[in-house]
Amino acid sequence: MINKLVEKIKKTNAPIVVGLDPMMKFVPGHIQRKAFEEYGETLEGAAEAIWQYNKALVDHIYDLVPAVKPQIAMYEQFGIPGLIAFKKTIDYCKEKDLVVIGDVKRGDIGSTSEAYAVGHLGKVKVGEKSYYGFDEDFATVNPYLGSDGVDPFIKVCKEEKKGLFILVKTSNPSSGEFQDRVIKDADKPLYEVVGEQVARWAEGHMGESYSYIGAVVGATYPEMGKILRKVMPKSYILVPGYGAQGGKGKDLVHFFNEDGLGAIVNSSRGIIAAYQQETYASFGEENFADAARAAVIDMQKDIAEALG
Amino acid sequence: MINKLVEKIKKTNAPIVVGLDPMMKFVPGHIQRKAFEEYGETLEGAAEAIWQYNKALVDHIYDLVPAVKPQIAMYEQFGIPGLIAFKKTIDYCKEKDLVVIGDVKRGDIGSTSEAYAVGHLGKVKVGEKSYYGFDEDFATVNPYLGSDGVDPFIKVCKEEKKGLFILVKTSNPSSGEFQDRVIKDADKPLYEVVGEQVARWAEGHMGESYSYIGAVVGATYPEMGKILRKVMPKSYILVPGYGAQGGKGKDLVHFFNEDGLGAIVNSSRGIIAAYQQETYASFGEENFADAARAAVIDMQKDIAEALG
After folding, report:
1. Which phi and psi angles does B97 have, rounded to 5°?
2. B16 beta partners
């Protein structure tokens, strides 16, 4: 799957992943009204609204970008109906030949991580048969529990030709609280120690030019991105924090390798809720998906210019 | 909810939580066959089997213990049908007046953690109405992203009178890979630095005698438990790793405070799959739930003796 992701990035010339994080405040009124007329103001109604919203967005951007990243929390908050919308979204995006990165940030002890890996990336056995649960192409993973929390994910990725993005340095303001603390015997911050471990995992699990074990490093920390780029030369870096969280094209340069590859930049609300921004307000709420398309094109230009 | 948990622990004299982690290899053959006859060897069939297994277990232990801890990964691996079984299990346990600790280990940046908190512990707004998604009483949370990943959970707990157990030192063999690394300026391992932060969160969010912000510390690391007990005097410690993972009653003493409270010990396969152990083999597979009850009683004795 990493080979497919790299191919699609080259083909679209857009190292961009669109975050499908459908908060209700982003979903246009007409979509909400129609869903609520059909299902009432219920969890099912909310799930229908976010599914219709996602579908229109995907229809308008699928030819421009290589990948999407649905954030499962935004679906999970609506309970079972929300998770059904998450699954429908994954299936639809795969029909459109998009690479799907499940932003699930799972991570647990061995047998439990194995269950998560099987549920999100692999097949679960039921008697003599086996089934995909959610079937994303990549998943994000939290490394706090160490190798035996991550190894089961790697095992399933190897079997299924899928991939991971492991949290190294997250984009949020308080990410430094633990991640930036300097480890005594290494004389390096924790995120770098985690990055070195990701590099070791990556080396052992290579696709054609890049490993299928990648990392998450926030666009909001470009100096750390510069260091981590060198620490993990074979890992794709998933870079959240562009746009709404404050990251800009020029901050992104050092997340890429000299081959112009090695990073994929996420934008969520900057694209899916573009119609709510002054720049794209002229599209109007009804044309939210056209506004999203315009925002993708602008983001593609911004990054292409920054990369020179 | 922490007050209810403490009351129920005192009443049952059992600081025990039963981990409802229904791996298929634990589910007796007759339950699997019946479920597969009705639903086929499908995800629905697997979900029916784990639900019937859970229901029988809960019916046989609910009067002996204060709480259960369903591990969501074991359900999530079966996709949507599995998560429906997770929700049915939560609802049924609450009907039986058990405190439900959702072992979800979620954790993300601010707005995303808010969605998880709302989905698992709070109510989500849909138009003018609001709904519980999964409605556990407590949730486990991963702290790697720092305060702005945890704060939204605390906010929802305050509103809903619910609680958290934050991962500090996990029970798995490789937990030390990052958690034990010594932080230079604090000259203490990371788990202790995280523990100190948990203590600060706990102090600001008190129930009657204990805080509703607790911690997870593995039974497999009793020496660290001893230190962390002092670092977080007001936090309940959820202690996994008893039984199958190698922890014993005598290892648990230092996880408790002098009031005999402050810790709740989890056992999963040691109880729910007791019938597969030599000690309880005489019950036979058909009577797996009676074997589980006997295992709870033995565990209660083991801990009571250790606590003197």
Report:
1. 65, 25
2. B265
Contact across the interface for A43 and B170, Cβ inside 8 Å: no
The helix (run of H) or strand (run of E) holding residue B157 is helix B147-160
Whether the complex's predicted ipTM is more than 0.85 is answered with yes
pLDDT of residue B34 exceeding 70, the answer is yes
CB of A134 less than 8 A from some CB of B: yes
**How far B86 CA sits from the closest chain A CA (Å)?**
10
Partner-chain contact B185 A187, CB within 8 Å = no
Task: For helices A190-203 and A222-231, give the axis angle rounded to 10 degrees.
Answer: 40
User: Using CB atoms within 10 A of its CB, is residue A36 exposed (0-12), middle (13-18) or buried (19+)?
Assistant: buried
Q: Taking a contact as any Cβ pair under 8 Å apart, which residues of chain B between 140 and 169 contact chain A?
A: 142-149, 167
Q: Which residues of A touch B76 (CB under 8 A)?
A: 115-116, 119-120, 133
Does A151 have pLDDT greater than 90? Answer: yes
Position B188 pLDDT exceeds 70: yes
CA angle (B108, A98, A247) in 5-degree steps: 45
A48: pLDDT strictly greater than 90: yes
Burial (CB < 10 A; 0-12, 13-18, 19+), residue A29, is exposed
Task: Write out the two tokens for A43.
Answer: 């969890």
Whole-structure pTM value = 0.97
Longest dimension (CA), chain B: 61
**pLDDT exceeds cutoff 90 at A54:** yes
Residue A80 at interface with chain B, using a CB cutoff of 8 Å: yes
* Chain B contact present for A112, CB below 8 A: yes
- Give A256-303 pLDDT, tens digit per residue: 999 999 999 999 999 999 999 999 999 999 999 999 999 999 999 999
Taking contacts as CB-CB distances below 8 angstroms, the residues of chain B near A128 are: 41
Residue B257, pLDDT score:
96
Contact B79 A171 (CB under 8 A): no
Question: Between β-strands B213-217 and A129-132, what pairing exists: parallel, antiparallel or unpaired?
Answer: unpaired
How far apart CA A18 and CA A271 sit, in angstroms, is 7
Distance of alpha carbon A108 from alpha carbon A116, whole angstroms: 9
Residues 191-230 of B with CB under 8 A from A: 193-194, 197
Q: What is the pLDDT of residues A225-238, one digit of tens each?
A: 999 999 999 999 99
